[in-house]
Amino acid sequence: MVMQITTVCFYFVPMMVISVLYLVMGLHLGREKQQPNGNLGKNCGGNTQRKINVNGRRRQVNKMLSIVVAVFGVCWAPFHIERLLWSSISQWTDLMHNIYQYVHILSGILFYLSSAVNPIIYSLLSTRFRECFRELVCSHVEDNSFVRDSPPFPKILPDPFVSSTRAQAGGKNLNAFIPLLSPNITLSMDTAILTCGCKDTTCKTSVF
């Protein structure tokens, strides 16, 4: 009884749910396909080509959804058949035992395959998936090559005048250092001193 209940809950119910949901998605895409394009007369050539591309992608999506449902049913059917055979047969014969062994091996292969087959289906049937996957892989390769080929950061030596000024003001501005990324790396907050001469009407600026 437990085997039968789990088969209904984990095979037939999910199969019905995804079938209904994917059917609704397919119908929605079909209704969008049948809607007329109001801006077709403005730019006939470009809009026609775009409409053909959109319709092709919608056909790919509908085909992909139906294949995903079929693959789910095929991959998990032997596993649940094996469970039903084990729970329903009371007197085993040699033929039944041989059938059970073959079903057991097949179910082990298929339900492991079901966890990895969806990306393969998307790659084979969806042009958009292939384009996005290619962009993702190429962007990672370019980022890695840029980091590997980039020159090292130049070593910046401190200005002696700035160093002496910081050393003199070290006792007063202890709270002017804030941690950056780690406690060992600090960033000193230097102030700009603006001295204006009233007689000469000129400003001398010293920025640290």
Task: Describe the 3D structure.
The chain has 208 residues and is mainly alpha-helical. It is built from 6 helices and 4 strands, in the order H-H-H-H-H-H-E-E-E-E. The protein has helices spanning 2-34, 44-88, 94-113, 117-125, 127-149, 160-168, and strands spanning 177-180, 182-188, 192-197, 202-207. The strands form 2 sheets. Strands 1-2 form a two-stranded antiparallel sheet. A two-stranded antiparallel sheet has the order 3-4. Helix 2 packs antiparallel against helix 3 (94-113) and helix 2 (44-88) runs antiparallel to helix 4 (117-125). The radius of gyration is 35 Å and the shape is flat. Mean pLDDT is 73; it is low at 171-208.
Short descriptors:
208 residues; two-stranded antiparallel sheet; 6 helices; disordered C terminus
